[in-house]
Amino acid sequence: MAPSTLPRATYRLQFRNGMTFHEAERLIPHLQALGISHLYASPVFTATDGSGHGYDVTDFNEIDPSLGGIAGFRRLAEALRAAGLGLVLDIVPNHMASSLSNNWWFSIIEWGTQSPFADYFDVDWSEPLTLPFLGTSFDSLAASGEVTVVFDRSRRRLGFQVYELFYPLTPASWAFVLEGCDLSLARDLRDCAAAGSPDLWEEAREALSVSSEDQKALDTVLAAKGKQPGFLTALHEMQPYRLVDWRQAKDHLTYRRFFEVAELVGLRVEDEKVFAHSHRLVLDLVRDGLVQGLRVDHIDGLADPTGYLHRLREAVGPDVYLLVEKILEKDERLPPNWPVEGTTGYEFISSMADALVPEDGLARLQAAYQGMSGDSRPYRTQLEAAKSQMLTVNFAGEVRFLAAIAANCNAEDCASPSPEDLEAAIRALVLELPVYRTYADEKGLTVEDQALLAQTAERARQASPPALIPAIDYLCGLMQGPLPVKNAAMLRRFRARFQQLGGPIMAKSLEDTLFYRLNVLLGLNEVGGDPSHVGGLEVFHATMKERRRFAPFALLATSTHDTKRGEDARARLYALAEAPEMWIAGVERWREINKGRLQHLPDGVAPEPEMEWMLYQALLGVWPLKGPDAPDFPGELPKRFSQYLTKALREAKLRTNWGAENQAYEQAVQAYAACFFDRGNQAFIADFHSTSLPFIRAGLLNSLSQTLVKLTAPGVPDIYQGSEHSDFSLVDPDNRRVVDFRLPPSGAPKRDIAGFEDYKAWLIATCLHLRAEAPQSLFTEGDYEPVSVEGPAAQHLIAFMRESGGAIAITLAPRSVLKLLTGEELLLDQTILAESRLRLPSRIASCAFRDILSGERVSGQDIALGKLLQAHPLSLLVSGV
């Protein structure tokens, strides 16, 4: 049953980077004109200074003052409500910033296990807390004079000063620092430290009175102490933390990080008090009626996603719209016991690829790419190689830590497998896991996850030496059945951390490694997708039927703040599979034109052939509609492309990476790419533009089809900021740039290349206003049925029908049209349309339909497409609305 706050359509807005609550208020008329029902806001809680995204929260119980604070948020929420709009808020329960501006984190740095927040975070307190934020070892920095001991007058604390950052000294070590110092301030500080507990110490510290003279005198003492041999090292060892080289994070870290980001620390939100403390404000906002929906970020990072969601649902009630950010692989569905409306819709992107990318064209591109790269390994083999690299290098510390927990989980008092075998067995299982994670809890695995683990374990056994099989079986046993009385806490911890490992490994291996290595068709490299395969129209229709049955209220996303490319860039790249030979020939010519810009480095030519292939595709995705004829060409494009290229090269982790930058290689590739925008390279620019035009035209029509399908398929359409006109962005931060918000035109604009942006916005507004008039269930729970197209246009149209309570909507959206377009207009070849017709089910043959785009009225079982698609490239027929 749909919640009472079910959105008609959401509009994702990225706060920060100039977007404040006041600026968002000014957009309300824009949202109304589009037909949006809910603003969908990125995280708005206080984050680290200068945060560009808000996922690095430092205070869950404060609205970020830089955005307008709680007062500004309330004004925005009230203004939305007055305009008849709702608000869906993005929340981040998995992690916080491991920042000194995070008071909870600062407290555990200062007090260790004595801190009232010591159990708020996923920290292994069997040893000091590792803080991997140094550029070298602590002792090296101390020897060079870059570490000092200071007294911070504003904080009334002693601490290490490193890189202009202040790391507090635990009060128990103050006596060591102040030993032999008779200054009155020193005596006061010793007395303060002797207070013992954090609460009593806080009162004593606040009562300290410190003059500038006291400060200066103590500074002199501390400077002298810091120069004593061994003093800084000894003091460092007294702390509940260790400041270490950031490169050590992959090998040894005492807290759970978000993916590979040590600046984000995992939160233990499964603890009731942590949940209550971290959700106090957001629950108040819901109870006050200011927020009607919540989007839960990175649900797979939690120790107990199911338990968390039930607790959250109980707290917010049945009428709040709940979504989870969850990457679903092909044929994977959300656990049926999750009390949510669905996902944020990443999987819909993959479905659109099924509908729009010709399978035979993709196969031809794959053959050409393999011939160029010399790498014919199957996709799965390449994914396993990337996962193996993550498990053995980037996440080696997590694997080692997990093996240590597993070794202590044996409730039978018999010998466990060796640590080395346990590590190898963990790698073997995670390597074979085809999804991001399973969901075992205290009761064990669900029936579905039992089958999944059994299949995973069998593949792991087959791929491993016989000696490793007992360790694999041992680990599988730890995941099965209810928790025993003995060793329950350790076993619970193993289950949580084992499952929390799968998501980061899959994400970093696939999204942030293989998607930058395997560049056959860049438009397919999106989360939840398989860049080696597309399903075709039949698979698309089958998937939409599944959505209607299992996720009718989930979001339908085509662009997000995390997508590798904007929806229109992706749709343009899909067109390469419609004319692969044209593209392949173009790449050969451009490589020849630019071969003089190749550089021969000690580790090989740069860029290598497969990198050239990728560069030209990436360029096509962002190439301006008017190309070199645009008055501001190339404008900001070289800078944007260069930023993207740095990320793409390092994420691939082949000849350079974030931890070990190969400057010579990067500079060579950047120099090669720079020639794309050099007016002196006119032969290339002219050839690239002329070759691109057919793909550009077909891509624009793909974009419009993608948009119409999103607006009428089962679910709730989500519009990412600015994409109502166009989104040709690259990966973040390019896709989070400042947006030029413009109202959609009131009438149908020109249907050509120049009018594309206005036409797309008009299409969205027209369809969303229809959704406002139609029964709410029509486009969510309404029946989904493919509709037959007969004649030569049969393979060039996506056709389906939605039906609910006497209301009917029929969608007609073009596909594979590159060879059917001529000139500037985005209209299909009338010759093909004249010989084709839409054949409706006999039970609705008597219905009269109105095309909401053209105004045409049609009826009968066979509808001629020539007239229907004469003035517009798409059609949305409605009856009973």
TrEMBL record:
**SUPFAM superfamilies according to UniProt:** (Trans)glycosidases
Give the matching CDD domains: AmyAc_MTSase
Q: Which UniProt keywords apply?
A: Isomerase
Q: Which residues form the Glycosyl hydrolase family 13 catalytic domain?
A: 4-461
An example molecular function term from Gene Ontology annotations:
(1,4)-alpha-D-glucan 1-alpha-D-glucosylmutase activity
- Enzyme Commission (EC) number: 5.4.99.15
NCBIfam families of this UniProt entry?
trehalose_TreY
Q: What is this protein called?
A: (1->4)-alpha-D-glucan 1-alpha-D-glucosylmutase
The top of its lineage is: Bacteria, Pseudomonadati, Pseudomonadota, Alphaproteobacteria, Hyphomicrobiales
